[in-house]
Amino acid sequence: MKIQKILLLAIPISSITVLLLGRNFFSTINNEIKFSPTLSSYGFFQGKMSDLLPATDLETFELSAPLFTDYAEKQRLFKIPKDSTITILSTGKLNFPEGSILVKTFYYPNEDNINSRRILETRVLIKNNTRWNFATYQWNETQTEAFLILEGADSQINWTDNNNRRRQINYHIPSSKECVACHKSKGKIQPIGPKVGNLKKWLIKQGDTIDQWQHFIDKRLITSNGSYDSFEKLPDYNDTQKDLTKRARAYLDINCAHCHNPLGLANYKTLNLGYEVPYKKTGIALKYPKIIHRMKVSGDLHMPKLGTTILHDEGYDLIEEYVQQLHRNKPFR
């Protein structure tokens, strides 16, 4: 296959780049607030904690193109102060009001009981004095509480995937420094997933099919003058009925662009992988052999650098198909 010949051109990054990468990735941003030692103290959930039933003042949201994290399933919540609203920035990102909270919980289906789940961690972002503060909570074995951790942790997980394959993974809960690595932009922590294009999604809520974005507008949780219409919806990259190029660009956007952009940690590279960046300005034409190589290779050179310990088979297949298409059409679309 011709693409295999191209992959041979993928050159390992130099030792200088490795040093730069390490220095940038694991620099520290200190929190400006003190987080509680236990997750339960915040009252994010009502009733039995492991049911993950949100408290009435929190909203559930889903992403059209979600970040891949070793096949973990996720619950995403946000909370904003009463009588406040989220506004839209010119970039399509959301400007959350002071005091806002984002809560993301990671879990796997429980092999011993198909009606339950094994919850591993909950990550919390709290906005205070215009800055986001970050904390990670690890759930205990009895699933009754989650405790604040700073140094990260590992848990062996067994589960059956959607193709009925038994899988095993040594799931890694990132340290505070690792979390900051992906969430840092211009020296500040920023949310990655919630933005206009990624919230435009139809979903089932309380038995009804709703337009999530319009739902938030109608509830006055988001204030918009119609400017959101200019931002294209990110497609579900798992939907094979949708355009290949758009699916691949959405995948690269959510999994790679938080670092590979002019303000991200990999800004010294020639890649800008945001979905709405014109193709000729992304650098993909020059770098696509290396992109597919870095996704497949294991170890320190693997990309995405953090948040994955195993290959995302479906994601790799998608980007490989996209790369092959690019190679056939050389080099620009």
Helix/strand class: alpha+beta
Computed Rg = 20 Å
Helix coverage percent? 10-25%
Instruction: Give me the number of helical elements.
Output: 8
Low-confidence stretches: 1-25
Distance between the termini: 21 Å
Proportion in β-strands: 15-25%
| Backbone shape | globular
Mean pLDDT: 84
Spell the H/E element sequence: HHEEEEEEEEEEHEEHEEHHHH
The domain tally reads: 2
Strand numbers in spatial order across the main sheet: 1-2-5-6-7-8
**Main beta sheet, described?**
6 strands, antiparallel
Say how many strands there are.
Answer: 14
Characterization of the model:
With 333 residues, the protein is an alpha+beta fold. The protein folds into 2 domains: 1-27 and 235-333, no CATH class; 31-234, no CATH class. It contains 8 helices and 14 strands. A 6-stranded antiparallel beta sheet has the order 1-2-5-6-7-8, with helices on one face. Helix 7 (284-296) runs antiparallel to helix 8 (313-329).
Offer a concise description of the structure.
By secondary structure, this protein is α+β, with helices and mostly antiparallel strands. It is built from 8 helices and 14 strands.
Keywords:
333 residues, alpha+beta, 2 domains, six-stranded antiparallel sheet, two-stranded antiparallel ribbon, 8 helices, 24% helix, 23% strand, disordered N terminus
